């Protein structure tokens, strides 16, 4: 199961997740995307094998914050939440950092 709730005015977020939604292998694509993340001191290459995913785009969590995307996933039988913050890098800058 793959489902999207919400809408973003950020075109890149909608484009990415609606493209994944319309794919016949959406769970594999989300797994592949999340498996590209790097966690400190974690050598595992395949942490995610997702069987279902609900995507919440631009949801407000009041004092907790406003993330760009919240993924509610079932990963190898466990339910997990993944918060994503999206940033766009323009190629006009030579250096770019999150901080």
* Shape annotation: globular
Structural class computed from helices and strand pairing? alpha+beta
Fraction in beta strands: 25-35%
- Sheet with the most strands: spatial strand order: 1-2-3-4
Share of helical residues = 10-25%
Main sheet, how many strands, which sense, barrel? 4 strands, mixed
- The count of helical stretches stands at 2
Number of strands: 4
List keywords for this structure.
globular, 2 helices, single chain, alpha+beta, 4-stranded mixed sheet, 99 residues, 21% helix
Describe the structure.
This protein is an alpha+beta fold and 99 residues long. The chain is 21% helix and 27% strand. It is built from two helices and four strands. The chain has helices spanning 11-21, 26-35; strands spanning 2-6, 50-57, 69-75, 78-84. Strands 1-2-3-4 form a four-stranded mixed beta sheet. The protein is globular. The N and C termini lie far apart (35 Å). The model has no long low-confidence stretch (mean pLDDT 81).
Task: Provide a quick synopsis of the model.
The chain has 99 residues and is α+β, with helices and mostly antiparallel strands.
Write the layout of secondary structure elements.
Blueprint: E1 2-6, H1 11-21, H2 26-35, E2 50-57, E3 69-75, E4 78-84
Parallel strand pairs: 1-2
Antiparallel strand pairs: 2-3, 3-4
């Amino acid at each position: 199961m793959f489902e999207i709730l919400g809408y973003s005015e950020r075109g890149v977020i909608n484009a990415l997740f609606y493209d994944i939604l319309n794919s016949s292998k959406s769970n594999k694509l989300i797994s592949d995307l999340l498996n590209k993340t790097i966690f400190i001191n974690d050598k595992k290459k395949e942490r995610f094998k997702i069987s279902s995913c609900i995507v919440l785009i631009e949801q407000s969590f009041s004092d907790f914050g406003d993330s760009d995307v919240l993924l509610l996933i079932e990963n190898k039988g466990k339910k997990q939440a993944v918060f994503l913050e999206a940033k766009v890098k323009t190629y006009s800058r030579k250096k770019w950092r999150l901080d």
